[in-house]
């Protein structure tokens, strides 16, 4: 008899957002800034860019990777933006972090290996053709190219925020096929993560990732086996932002 598989649970607002607010329009209007500047909203409504994100995710679906589509990049954009906003950073830096979050995985349409560099190289002409100033493009593509823990480094505030936002997105809903979780540790660990909330306390210079993991599906040790290098990357990025980084799993502080 086939072993019963865990059933998908409906999303709660917390799972769909940064701290409980639904994902929606980001980068709220700020007085005195150019209304024609390129923002997350600009790109979210751009058919060409949305098509590239969807095509990149379709490729990853074909080779069995977790969701890297519009849902993931929207959540990363939101977390990157809100991280800098809560730390009191410049409004435009917050917006550039969100732009980088939206485009950070488009290079998967070329290949998974080297996708950070592919994404950065693809982002340059896309943003240039849409009128973004060259210096802002440099900030965005630098953040994108450095978001992978294998070779990246936090090199700017948007870069550090993107790293934390991306690596903190561990969540059940990213698993495409729950039937395979017994065979793939990455899917099992993601499927075990029932909640993933990123807290940013600007006053105390603290960034905390709070996870709830179903230990009947995956043990906490498996999380560390797979994601420890990512958590070190988050801690390095938090340090760049002059913050401490904490990891809390099932209400137990582990970092």
Mean of residue pLDDT?
Answer: 84
Distance between the termini: 41 Å
Spatial strand order of the main sheet: 1-2-3-4
Q: Pick out the low-confidence regions.
A: 1-32
The CATH class is Mainly Alpha
Order of helices and strands: HHHHHHHHEEHEE
Q: Report the sheet-strand fraction.
A: 5-15%
* Overall number of structural domains: 1
Overall shape: it is globular
List the total number of helices.
9
CATH superfamily: Hypothetical protein af1432
Radius of gyration: 18 Å
Helix content: 40-55%
Q: Structural class from helices and strands?
A: alpha+beta
Task: Give me the CATH fold name.
Answer: Hypothetical protein af1432
Largest sheet: 4 strands, mixed
Please tell me the CATH architecture by its name. Orthogonal Bundle
Strand segment tally: 4
Describe the structure in brief:
With 255 residues, the protein is of the alpha+beta class.
